[in-house]
Specification:
The chain is α/β, with parallel strands linked by helices. The chain is about 40% helix and about 20% strand. It has 15 helices and 21 strands. It binds nicotinamide-adenine-dinucleotide. GO terms for molecular function: oxidoreductase activity, acting on the aldehyde or oxo group of donors, NAD or NADP as acceptor.
Length: about 475
C-alpha cells in the first residue's frame, strides 16, 4: 500500500487541515512513491506556533547538548541511509549511485554543525578602564527553510543543521514534488532526541504553504533555495517585513580550460560538472570556456567521454515534467540561435524523463543557451583567445554562483580566481568542498552564505553588551 505522510508538527504526524494529499510519482513513470499533505495557511499557523513554543526550551539548552542531539541525528541518518537513498532516488529520479552520496552529505551537515555549536561566539571589546563590553551571537527564533526538488534532503539539511545548532527552531518546506525525505528527516530527528516542535516539516505548494510561511509574523528569518523568480518574490516579502533572508538561487557556471591544463583531467572533471544529477544543479559548470588552441582536442575528448556514460548510472531522469519540457525547449532554442549540436540533443527511449548529455559548440556568450539557466544536461562550449577574454566571458552573466578553471600555472590560478565574480571558484576540480566550505552567490545567484562555519553567522544576530564596572 502507498505510504501516506502527515505534516510533521510538534514531534508527530498531523493530518493536513485541508484533508487533501498530493500524489508523488517516480519522474516520468506511473509508479506512485507516496502521498504527501496538501498543506494550507492553517497548517502554517499550527507549525509556526509549535516552533515558537519550542524555542525557549531549545535555545536554553547548553550548546554541547544541542550538539549531541545533532550528532545523534547524523548517526540515525546514516543508519537509515539505504532506505532514504532509495526514497530520494524514487521521488527525484536519481541514479542509484548518486542518492547515497546525497544522504551521506545530509548526515555530514549534522555531524559538522554538531561540532560547531559554540563557534559563533562573541568577542570582548575594550571600551577602556571601568567598562566591560562584549558581543554574543543569538538565534533569531523561528526560521523558515524553503527548498527545491533537485537535492531535497541534502538542501534541507544544509539549512536545518546550522539553524538548529545555534538554537533556532525550524519550519521547513520542501518542494511539493519531493517532500518525502524531508518528512522522514523530521521523524528521524525526533527519534534521535530532538525535542518536539524544534523541527517541523510542512508540505504543499508555494502558494498554499510557501508564501504564508514567509508572511507569518512569527517567522524571524527565511533561508530559501530555488529559482531567481521565487527568490525575488520572497525577498520582497522579507523586505516588507524587515526580516533577514538568505537566498541561494541559480547559476550559469563558467568552467575555463586553459591551454596549459592537464587536458585529460580537465575533460574528466568537466563531464560530471555539467552532467551530475542530469544537470539539475545550481552550481553546475554549464558554460565550458576553452582556449582556441586546444578547443578541438577538448571537444573531441568530451564527446568520446560522453559516449561512455550510461544513463541511469552517470545521470538520471529529469525530476519534473515542467523541467523536462523546459530543457527540450532549450534544445530548440540552441538550434534556432545557430549553435552547433555536437552530441546528444535527444530524448532517450527509456522509462523516465531522460535527455541525452548534450554539447553545443560554436556558442557565443550572447546566446540564450549561454545566458539562461537550463537546469538540464546541456553544455555550451565557448572559445576564447586569452586570459582576459576568458575572464570577460566568464563574468558576462547575471549569475555568480560557481566558476572553475583548469591550469598548471599556479600564478594564473590565483590571478583568475581573484578576477572571477563567483561565490565559489574551483581550480583543477569541480565542487569538492561539499559541506565545509561556505557556499553562495554573487550577483543574481543570491544573498548570504550557506555551509561551512560561515553559515552560522546567517542563523544568528549580534548583541552588544556594555557594562560600567
Ligand atoms: P522554485 O523557486 O520554483 O521553488 C523552490 C521552493 O520554493 C519550492 O519549495 C517552492 O514551493 C517554493 N516557492 C516558490 N515560490 C515561492 C514563494 N513565492 N514563496 C514561498 N515559497 C515559494 O525552484 P525549483 O523549480 O523547485 O528549483 C529549481 C531552482 O532552484 C533552479 O533555478 C536552481 O538553480 C535553484 N537551486 C539553487 C540552489 C543553490 O543553492 N543556489 C540549489 C538548488 C537549486
Amino acid at each position: 500500500m502507498t505510504k501516506r505522510y502527515g505534516q510533521w508538527i510538534g514531534g508527530a504526524e498531523v493530518e493536513p487541515a485541508s484533508g487533501e494529499y498530493l500524489i508523488c510519482r517516480e519522474p516520468g513513470r506511473p509508479d506512485v512513491v507516496c502521498e504527501t499533505p496538501a498543506g494550507s495557511r492553517d497548517d502554517v499557523d499550527t507549525a509556526v506556533a509549535a516552533a515558537k513554543a519550542a524555542w525557549d526550551g531549545w535555545r536554553a539548552r547548553k550548546p554541547i547538548e544541542r550538539g549531541r542531539v545533532l550528532a545523534a541525528i547524523a548517526a540515525r541518518l546514516r543508519a537509515e541511509s539505504a532506505y532514504l537513498a532509495a526514497l530520494e532516488a524514487a521521488q527525484a529520479g536519481k541514479p542509484p549511485g548518486l542518492a547515497p552520496l546525497e544522504i551521506e552529505a545530509a548526515a555530514t551537515y549534522f555531524e559538522f554543525y554538531a561540532g560547531l555549536v559554540n563557534h559563533p561566539d562573541g568577542e570582548v571589546i575594550d571600551l577602556g578602564p571601568g567598562m566591560h563590553a562584549y558581543t554574543v551571537r543569538e538565534p533569531f527564533g523561528v526560521v523558515a527553510i524553503i527548498t527545491p526538488w533537485n537535492a531535497p534532503l541534502n538542501q534541507a539539511c544544509r539549512g536545518i543543521a546550522p539553524a538548529l545548532a545555534v538554537g533556532n527552531t525550524v519550519v521547513a518546506k520542501p518542494s511539493e514534488f519531493t517532500s518525502a525525505t524531508t518528512l522522514e528527516l523530521a521523524r528521524i530527528a525526533t527519534q534521535a532526541g530532538l525535542p518536539d516542535g524544534v523541527l517541523n516539516v510542512l508540505t504543499g505548494d508555494a502558494e498554499s504553504v510557501g508564501a504564508p510561511l514567509v508572511e507569518h509574523p512569527d517567522v524571524r528569518k527565511v533561508a530559501f533555495t530555488g529559482s531567481v523568480t521565487a527568490g525575488r518574490a520572497i525577498g520582497r516579502v522579507a523586505a516588507e517585513r524587515i526580516i533577514p533572508v538568505t537566498l541561494e538561487l541559480g547559476g550559469k557556471g563558467p568552467n575555463i580550460i586553459f591551454a596549459d591544463a592537464d587536458l585529460a583531467a580537465a575533460v574528466r572533471g568537466s563531464i560530471p560538472a555539467f552532467l551530475a544529477n542530469a544537470g539539475q544543479i545550481c552550481s553546475a559548470g554549464t558554460r565550458l570556456l576553452v582556449h582556441e588552441d586546444v578547443h578541438d582536442q577538448v571537444v573531441n575528448a568530451l564527446v568520446a567521454g560522453l559516449a561512455t556514460v550510461e544513463p541511469g548510472v552517470a545521470y538520471g531522469s529529469i525530476t519534473t515534467e515542467a523541467q523536462f519540457a523546459k530543457v527540450q525547449s532549450y534544445l530548440r532554442i540552441a538550434e534556432e540561435e545557430g549553435a552547433k549540436l555536437t552530441t546528444g540533443g535527444t530524448v532517450l527511449d527509456r522509462p523516465g524523463w531522460y535527455i541525452a548529455p548534450t554539447v553545443f559548440t560554436e556558442v557565443t556568450n550572447d546566446m540564450r543557451i549561454a545566458r539562461e539557466e537550463i537546469f538540464g544536461p546541456v553544455l555550451s562550449v565557448i572559445r576564447f583567445a586569452d586570459e582576459d577574454e576568458a575572464v570577460a566571458i566568464a563574468n558576462d552573466t547575471p549569475y555568480g554562483l560557481s566558476a572553475g578553471l583548469w591550469t598548471r600555472d599556479l600564478s594564473r590560478a590565483h590571478r583568475v580566481a581573484a578576477r572571477l565574480e563567483a561565490g565559489q571558484v574551483y581550480v583543477n576540480e569541480w565542487q569538492h568542498g561539499l559541506v565545509e566550505g561556505p557556499f553562495g552567490g554573487y550577483k543574481q545567484s543570491g544573498v548570504g552564505r550557506e555551509k561551512g562555519a560561515e553559515a552560522l553567522h546567517h542563523y544568528t544576530q549580534t548583541k552588544f553588551v556594555s557594562i560600567r564596572l
